[in-house]
Amino acid sequence: MAGTNNPEFKSKITVYVLACWILAAFGGLMFGYDIGISGGVTAMDDFLIKFFPAVHERKLHAIEDNYCKYDDQYLQLFTSSLYLAALVSSFGASKACNILGRKPTILIASAFFLAGAAMSAAAEYKWMLILGRILFGIGVGFGNEAVPVFLSEIAPVQHRGAVNILFQLFITIGILIASLVNYATSTVHPYGWRLSLALAGAPATVLFVGSLIITETPTSLVERGNDKEGKAALKKIRGVDSVDDEYEQIKMACEQAKQVKHPFKKLMKRSSMPPLIIGIMLQVFQQFTGINAIMFYAPVLFQTVGFKNDASLLSAVITGIVNVGSTFVSIYAVDKVGRRKLLLQACVQMFIAQAAIGGILLVQLKPTGSLDKGLAAVVVVLVCLFVMSFAWSWGPLGWLIPSETFPLETRTAGFAFAVSSNMLCTFFIAQAFLSMMCNMKAFIFFFFSAWILVMGLFVVFLVPETKGVPIDDMVERVWKQHPVWKKFMDDDRSKSNVLA
C-alpha cells in the first residue's frame, strides 16, 4: 500500500504532554456530567414539585402505567435542550477552531459551562432552568468540537487511539461522578437538585484553568501562519528535537489546506464523501444503540422495573462504574486490536443484551406492579453488559474515527458535521425516549436492537481500519485502498482544490 514505508516519528511521553491530554479531556468530563446529572435530577421529588408538579402527581399514583409515568414533553425538554444548543453551536465552534485555534475554543467552552452551572443552580423558574441547559449546550458544542481534534493532533501516531479515547474515558467518569452526586444529594431536601446542577462548575473550573495551561496544536499554529511557534510546540509535545519529518508533513498538509478557501463547500465534493459519510453515520449509530436512553434515564428506567428511588440511583452508579472500567479496555486495545474488531464485537454483545432486556420486560413487566427482585437484578446485569460493550467500542470510536480521518483542509468543518449529527440524534433520543417508552413499552429495546444489526453491517462493508496510519496520510493509505471508497478518490481531489 502507498505510504507504508513512512518512518515512525520520534516522540517521548513527557509530564507536560500528559498534562495537556488530561486537562483537555476535562471537556469530556463536563459533557459526561451533563449527560449523567439530568436523569437523577428529573427523578428527584423536590425538583419535580418545583418545576413539574403534574409529573410528580402522576408519579405518586401506583395505578399509573409503569411505562408512562414520566412522559412529559417539558421534562424531556429539560434534558434535550442542551443537545439542540450544542448542535447549533458546533458550527460556530468549527469557525472558532480555524480562526482562533483549538486552545481558545476550549477556553470558550469552559466559560459557557461555568455560566450554565450558575444559571441552572440558581433557577427559580422553568425558563431559567432551560436557559441554563442551553448555556451548557453551547459549551458542549464548543468542547466536543475542539477537544477530540486537539487530542488527535497532539498525539503521537502510535498512541493516537488511546490518547483520543481519553475524551470518552472522561465522559464516562463525568457520568459516574454525576450518578454519585445525585445519589448523595437526593437525600438533601429541598435543594439537593441545586447542588447537583451547581457542582457542574467544579470540572468547568478545571477546564477553564487547563485551557490556559495547554499548548496550541502544532497543526493549528502552522495552519494560521505561525510556523516558528508550530515547530517549537511540536518539539515541546514530542519531547525531542528531531521533529523535522513530522513538521514537514504538517506543513505539507497545511499548504494543501490553504488551497481550499471554503471548507464546507469542499466537504460536498465527491472525494470528501468517505470520511463525511462515516463521520456522520458513526454518530447516528452511536446514539441509536440506545446508550443515551439508558444513561440519561437510568434512574427512571430502574424505577420503572421496580427499584425504589435510592436503589435506582445506586443502580445508575453501578452502570457508571462499569462504563468507566470498560473504557480502559478500549484505551488498551484500540491501537493493538484496531477499530473495526472492537466495533463488530460490541455489536454482537449489545444486540444480545438489548434483545434480552426487551424480552424480559415484554413478558414480565405489566403496566402496573413491578418485576420480582431476581428479574430486576437480571435487567441490571444486562444493562451492565450492554454499557460494557458500548464503552470499549462505539462510545470512544464514535469520536476517535471522525477526528482522525478528515484531511486538514476539511478537518474542523467535517468534525462539526459529526458533532452536530451526534447532537441532533442525542436531542431526538432525549426528547422522545420517555414518550417512546410510554407508547412502545418493551418494544423500544427491540427498536434499538434492530439499529445495532444495521450498524454491524455498516462496519463490515464500509468502515476501514485506521490503526497506525498518520493523521495526514489517510487519503493515500486508507481511502484510496478501500474497495468501496476508492471509487470516490479519483481526480476529484485535484479538481476540487482548484474549484474550492
TrEMBL record:
GO molecular function, one term: monosaccharide transmembrane transporter activity
Membrane topology summary: Multi-pass membrane protein
Keyword Endoplasmic reticulum on entry: no
Cited SUPFAM superfamilies: MFS general substrate transporter
Transmembrane segments: 13-33, 74-93, 105-123, 129-151, 163-185, 191-214, 276-300, 312-335, 342-363, 375-401, 413-436, 442-463
The Major facilitator superfamily (MFS) profile domain, residue ranges: 20-467
Pfam families with a match to the protein in the record: Sugar_tr
Superkingdom assignment: Eukaryota
Signal peptide range: none
PROSITE patterns named in the record: MFS, SUGAR_TRANSPORT_1, SUGAR_TRANSPORT_2
CDD domains with a match to the protein in the record: MFS_STP (cd17361)
Record bears the keyword Lipoprotein: no
GO cellular component assignments: membrane
Entry's localization field: Membrane
Keyword vocabulary terms for this entry: Membrane, Sugar transport, Symport, Transmembrane, Transmembrane helix, Transport
Similarity comment: Belongs to the major facilitator superfamily. Phosphate:H(+) symporter (TC 2.A.1.9) family. Belongs to the major facilitator superfamily. Sugar transporter (TC 2.A.1.1) family.
Protein name per UniProt: Major facilitator superfamily (MFS) profile domain-containing protein
Source organism per UniProt: Nyssa sinensis
